[in-house]
Amino acid sequence: EIKAMNGNGITKPNSKSSNIVEAVQTARDAFNRGVTRPIEWRRKQLNSLLRMYEENRNAMIEALHKDLRRSKMEAVLLEVDYLINDLKNTIHYLDEWSAPEKPPKGIVNILDKVVIYNDPYGVVLVVGAWNYPLQLLLLPMSGAIAAGNTVIVKPSELSVACAQFVAETIPKYLDNEAVIVVEGGPQETTELLKQKFDYIFFTGGTNIGKIVYEAATKNLTPVTLELGGKSPVYIDNTVDIFVTAKRILWGKFINVGQTCIAPDYVLCTKEVQDKFIEAAKKVLKEWYGDEPQKSPDLCRIINSRHFSRLQALVDASRDKIAIGGTYDANDRFIEPTVLSNVTGTDKIMQDEIFGPILPIVTIENAYEAIKFINEREHPLVLYVFSTQNNIQKLFTEQTRSGSINMNDTIMFYGVLYVFSTNDKVVSSLVDNTSSGGMCVNDTVMHMGVETLPFGGVGSSGIGAYHGKATFDTFTHKKSCLIKNFAAIGEKLASGRYPPYSESNLNF
Ligand code: NAD
């Protein structure tokens, strides 16, 4: 069923594609009328969106709880407050970001104006994923509004409560002709992708990302693609295994593994595997108690299809379960599970796991780990836990991944984390690796630096956002030379007109 909010914010439930055509046309007309261009209009919309977040904090927390049984802590930290802080920053800098830029100019243009205008693209499509259903949808949406675009937002149909929240709440706070929610799944998204957009921002799986990219080429529509992958972790015997276990398990079990940059599997020696499992047992008991199903801090699997997929993975790995391994279909609960002695041909190693199962593949040494990684698709993130500089260097130089992360796992992808006070090590990593971003001697805190763009490179995606980068993503830099008619300027440049005289050339 398609529910497109039309110009009056009225939900028109029917399954005709005409509704989608109408929604896009409404957004196109609004853009063409210039509704979204004035900064004051944008500011009003963004302030109203902020009011929406603040007045609906509990509703958002509840929707996340309904869809994913998200704890309040994770809901606030990873979505609600994250959105609020980003939006406050956008509102604060709106004038500065949108103002025309005046680049330096040469002597030839001394009498002219040389300006870069921050132009909206036009009509933007934002397609969200279900795993962080509010953040991944509303953050790009607010950036598109700030940059003066009209927006069609398509929440994931799988996070039902969040999609409903967005569809019901946005029309109450935002201009109904400029920001339109279209609900639906693959069929409706396919229909949407047949329309002409001026920018498409997609978050989701790599396969669907390719479909979106292909559809965008029809109209040469620029895209941002935030995609997924299978991110390995390498651990050696030089690390503090307790801290390492905590950092890996936290990255794995927030949102019960349904995170695009969750550590997917571990590579280590048998000796490290034993120590890791011992530490992991203690950590998990401390965090979730003897009956993890009763812990309020563990989310649930989004739906029964994903539950069955994960259940089959646990069942196929029965003889390799080191920790956990229970599940409850009625509750869509899968216990945090660690598998030992897994091999590259096991079922669990074929696709992105996207759930609370952490396989450990044992290897003899770092070279074998690198070979293992390089025989597979380029991962989104590579996590390395080692205090040996030569090992860190080996991994950064000899593997290909979207990014590398040293000695911690991360909430967001595309970052290289380095723990070192040795400037040579740091600069060697900066110079010899490719990643969306870097953070040295800390994790997560770089997220508070709103001046740092955030995104992947290569297989981790196309484009970057957050802070000003979000604004710039949805902005076309329109270069403009404004000449005047001063007689002297015309005289100085008159040599360009025919009949040409070679005496005007400098050689
Ligand atoms: P998905 O690709 O199945 O769905 C994403 C969106 O595409 C949804 O809105 C869905 O309705 C739509 N869609 C699904 N099938 C379609 C089709 N055939 N044609 C057109 N549209 C279609 O992804 P998901 O299951 O919602 O999310 C999980 C994936 O997203 C994982 O691979 C994860 O790694 C990735 N992800 C990446 C990031 C990031 O920032 N890089 C963040 C979250 C999730």
The residue-averaged pLDDT reads 85
> Could you give the distance between the termini?
70 Å
Taking all Cα atoms into account, the compactness measure Rg is 26 Å
User: Which sequence of strands runs across the widest sheet?
Assistant: 2-1-6-5-4-7-8-21
Helix content: 40-55%
Principal-axis shape equals globular
Bound molecules: nicotinamide-adenine-dinucleotide
Number of distinct helices: 16
Strand percentage lies at: 15-25%
Number of strands: 23
In the predicted model, the low-confidence regions spanning at least 5 consecutive residues are 1-16, 410-422, 438-445
**Which structural class should the secondary elements be placed in?**
alpha/beta
Give the biggest sheet: 8 strands, mixed
What does this structure look like?
This protein is of the alpha/beta class. Strands 2-1-6-5-4-7-8-21 form an eight-stranded mixed sheet, sandwiched between helices. Strands 11-14-15-10-9-16-17 form a seven-stranded mixed sheet, with helices on both faces. The termini are far apart. Helices cover 40% and strands 20% of the residues. Helix 9 crosses helix 10 (270-288) and helix 13 (389-398) packs parallel to helix 14 (423-432). The chain binds nicotinamide-adenine-dinucleotide. The active site is at residue 226. Belongs to the aldehyde dehydrogenase family. Keywords: Membrane, NAD, Oxidoreductase, Transmembrane, Transmembrane helix.
Describe, in short, the structure shown.
With 507 residues, the chain is α/β, with parallel strands linked by helices.
